[in-house]
Backbone:
């Protein structure tokens, strides 16, 4: 894609890199927001851990599944679905009237993050592949008879 659409390459890379940034930053943002969650929703320590841990555990458990879904259903489709699910979960988290809604919204966010994160890595590999390396010469591989004869003749000296 870099040779076909060079002016779009930078924009594509920026969009692709925003997904893992949002997924990772969301865990940090929730940690910083724990005092507000405690004050506004009356969450105790265990409930605050569930708000944070629910996201992290769901994200970790579904990450490999998200990669496989991208492989079977299309990387672009899963990336866009992941962004939509993550955004929906973010909106629900921000508008959560109760702690239960907040925890559920955080798990929804994690599902979206697990769908979009692996597609980012694959998208970068597919879109920004450099020139292919030339195939190795047949005589640079170990089974080459000339290579073995060089090794055996130099070993006998």
Residues:
């Amino acid at each position: 894609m870099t040779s076909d659409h060079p002016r779009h390459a930078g924009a594509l890379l920026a969009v692709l890199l925003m997904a893992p940034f949002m997924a990772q930053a969301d865990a940090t943002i929730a940690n910083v927001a724990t005092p507000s969650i405690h004050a506004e929703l009356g969450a105790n320590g265990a409930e605050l851990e569930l708000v944070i841990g629910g996201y992290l555990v769901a994200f970790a458990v579904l990450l490999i599944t998200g990669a496989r879904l991208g492989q079977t259903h299309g990387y672009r489709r899963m990336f866009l679905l992941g962004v939509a699910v993550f955004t929906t979960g973010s909106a629900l988290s921000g508008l959560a009237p109760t702690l239960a809604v907040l925890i559920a919204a955080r798990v929804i966010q994690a599902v979206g993050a697990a769908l979009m994160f692996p597609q980012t890595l694959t998208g970068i590999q597919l879109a920004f592949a450099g020139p292919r390396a030339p195939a190795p010469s047949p005589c640079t591989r170990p089974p080459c008879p000339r290579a073995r004869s060089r090794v055996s003749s130099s070993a006998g000296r």
Helices lie at 6-32, 34-41, 45-73, 75-95, 99-127, 145-155. The mean pLDDT is 85.
